Amino acid sequence: MEKKKILITGGTTFVSKYAAEYFAEYGYDVYVLNRNTKPQVNGVTLIEGDRHGLGDKLKKMHFDVVADITAYDGADITDLCDALDSFDQYIMVSSSAVYPENGIQPFQEDAEKKVNRFWGKYGTDKIEAEETLLKRVQDAYIVRPPYLYGSMNNVYREGFVFDCARDNRKFYLPGDGEMKLQFFHVKDLCRFMEILMETKPAEHIFNVGNPDTISIKEWVTLCYACLNRTPVFVNVYKDVEQRNYFSFYHYEYYLDVQKQQQILPDTMPLEEGLRESLRWYMAHEDEVNKKPYIKYIDENLA
């Protein structure tokens, strides 16, 4: 079969970088669109430029798939669509941040989209991007993940807990540790996009994620177990901002992923995904944007 020609926006950081590498390794003809300020992954063709000033760089080029992983607002969509010549399929990676924090959970794809006080402008910009895309490309696919994790994650989430486990630190846990989180491995996101490319399902907006949530206490325990450690917890009930010492907001939410499960029923077990994430982190921790959580803990909570 002829290789699909896929344009990936970004290609140098976390999700877009992982996607570029994933599809290149699986034999796709991958083009990445970025400003060429960071190293490129192997096996891709670079289109150097900013999506807001592409001129005719994409003219006379046809793509089987546009995988828009770096669209954050309506202007991002408008400028890329104006620059494109022709394509068969458009997939946008959006976010669960489009749902308001006080909405009915689990959130379904047709739930109200509204400002979320934890995500603020990021969420409302994603709403604008989705709406702009559906006006420009009516048959586009929109994918809304929860917290993404795995190799190449430059956000200091599981990496923070790995650091605490490696140093055999006590772990300062918000409250009773029962706050729930929902995750999705970046490889599963790529697998899901590949299914959309191959099967073109009738549904066009999908929540994606592991079908089950997990408490933050259980999640931290799994992260410690990756280094053969068992955490000693210190429960924090002080009235302090949780993001000062923990890598997630004090906000739990749950996506309904039944539509995803109909076409991707098997997602990576969290234990396996965290071990994979640790292997990458131990070799690339200098690529992670570390936050001063440990410093704050030592100065204010310990």
Describe the protein in words.
α2 (about 75-85) packs parallel to α3 and α4 (about 160-165) packs across α6. The protein has a seven-stranded parallel beta sheet with strand order 3-2-1-4-5-6-11. Strands 7-10 form a two-stranded parallel ribbon. A two-stranded parallel ribbon has the order 8-13. The relative contact order is 0.14. It is α/β, with parallel strands linked by helices and about 300 residues long. The model has no long low-confidence stretch (mean pLDDT about 95). It contains nine helices and 13 strands.
Quick tags:
18% strand; alpha/beta
Following the backbone from N to C, one meets helices and strands in this order, namely EHEEEHEHEEHEEEHEEHEHHH
Using only CA atoms, what is the Rg?
20 Å
Percent range of helical residues = 25-40%
Q: Write down the overall geometry.
A: globular
Largest sheet: 7 strands, parallel
Query: Which strand order spans the largest sheet, edge to edge or round the barrel?
Result: 3-2-1-4-5-6-11
Number of DSSP strands? Answer: 13
Flag low-confidence runs: none
Our estimate of the beta-strand percent is: 15-25%
Number of helices in the DSSP assignment: 9
Average pLDDT: 97
Judged by helices, strands and strand pairing, the structural class is alpha/beta
Distance between the termini: 60 Å
